[in-house]
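Action item from last week, closing it out:
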Amino acid sequence: MQGLALAENYFFSVGLPSLENQFPTLLACMAAGLVGDGSECYGFDDEISRDHDWGPGFQIWLDDEDFEAWGPRLSAWYSGLPRVFASFGPRRRSSWGDNRVGVFSVSGFYRGFIGLGRAPESPDEWLAIPENALAAATNGRVFLDRGGRFSTVREMLAGFYPEDVRKKKIASRLMTAGQSGQYNFSRCVRRRDDVSAAYARTKFFADAFSLVFLLKKRYAPFYKWMVRAAMTIPEPGPEMARLARLLCRSPDYSEQELLIETMSALAVNELRSQGLTGSSSSFLCDHGPEVQQTIADPVLRERNVWVG
């Protein structure tokens, strides 16, 4: 049993019948599900995941006015639910896991992830939110939403970045991935600076995977799940993940350089297939300005290509 399925079964078997009995009128304006931090929200949980913040539980979301009026009472009700279900539980809460399940206001829940109680409304608001925060705010599953507000915000976020913002971020990732992987990694190796070489390689991983997620219009999750999540998106996600594993396991710097170039070529091919670049260069940094020039918003187009 994975955590998301456990949460859904727990809600429909235990939570919903009790809500229908004790809060029938409130059901018409609430939402419930499991979204946010934790491997179970991505469907990536395993036996190792069960040592903390895992087990029977779900979230309830209320509009601000309903939360103010009903939040304390509903929270007390939630605390009284059975802590063990289907032979699983109770949840072992870590010091950082107190707010992963329970009762929330819609705006408060989203504000905890993206800093806003609503969907972003400007390029600057979108650019200020970390990709992994948007991934967490849109993962998991909504079991029911009779009020509609929670899902309205969720759908706006899940629709992905506005195209100009996506292009701005792609341009930036091309610059930083090319700089760390194709340029600085080999220079660090030639200087026998193993620590800096390892950092350059890791920086390349982070930015190259972010680039691929942006190209496939998916939010890159927390770094621990980035490679795992890449396996679930369309190509070149799975191939990038396979090559990254080879790169990490290779003891040979020359082979690592070749693998970095192969991963970069995959990204360039995807850029070309989307019509984002006309350059024939194999160097990622050469494509950043090309992508930036396709941005329609003149203010965004004129910003530093390295920042996004």
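Closing note: The longest strand covers residues 30-34.
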